[in-house]
Amino acid sequence: MNFLGVDGGGTKTAFLLINQKGEILSYLTTETSHYIQIGMDNFKKVIKKGIKESCINAGIDLSEINYTFFGIPGFGENDKDTVIIRKQLSDIMQESKFKCGNDVEAGWAGSLACQPGINIVAGTGAIGFAKDQKHNSARASGWGYFCGDEGSAYWLGKKVISLFTKESDKRLKKTEIYKIVKEKFDLKRDFDLIEILYNELELKRNKIASLAKLLYKAAQSGDKKAVEVYKQAAYEHSLIVKALIKKLNFTRTKKVSVSYSGGVFNASHFILEPLREYLKEENVKLIEPILKPVTGAALYAKMLANNLEKPDQKTIDKLKKEEKRIGVN
């Protein structure tokens, strides 16, 4: 038996195929599958191409994929779009052989290996997802870049732009972030940034999100403003965790596992230390992700196909080894 996990995102889409033993048969990444960014027709093309290439890599036919979990960005947020997405996917494979959920569910499946707890996703966007011991689920944040997405890479990217413009104007004292942005885009005049934002970055969500890397570089250089922005992001993530605790009925006799996924958390202690501090009064424990989101999606597909309530530790351990062997990221 073979199981496919698909983890969509605002920047890329990952496909991972495993067998019953937990061996990875194929792993690949393609462009974003966020239908709001690329349209429904292109969404279908990205998914169809990724599945086809996965089958070719594994040397199997589409009919040999027993079950698939699709983690699709934006799924479930618009009833009309949800129906269309399901129809698009059922054109590719039998509807009885897949389940579709929001990409945040893939994040939870990976970081917590499909076990009760809370997962925060902070990639291009930001959202939280949780499941309690009775399999009730809830989400918080994830309202999109216009309404919110606080603590996301896009949100951090906008903070970078804001700091640069204020420091350029002398509204704030110049720090490393000013120098880093100026050098990154080789600005002759500070106002040239406007043209770059519109013409080079095209104001695209994923390209603005990429500016978060400049914030990390500034924080590493000791820029106090950059470090403070990460603290603000951590505070927003803590609100997500607290909201999800209120929404669900976690067992009070044990601490709730809280994990994370997404590129923002590559900032390590700049984001994790303040997050831990903001959550110190809560009955939670912050843990490192167990698996990558796409691996979690494949594990979830295996569990759904076999009607399992929880994964076996042997499979989890095997998948962790396989991730290292293949280089899943």
Automatic annotation (TrEMBL):
Keywords: Kinase, Transferase. Pfam families: BcrAD_BadFG. It comes from the Bacteria. The keyword Kinase applies. Residues 4-301 form the ATPase BadF/BadG/BcrA/BcrD type domain. Gene3D superfamilies: 3.30.420.40. Coiled coil: none annotated. GO terms for molecular function: kinase activity. This is N-acetylglucosamine kinase-like BadF-type ATPase. The lineage of its organism: Bacteria, Bacillati, Bacillota, Clostridia, Halanaerobiales.
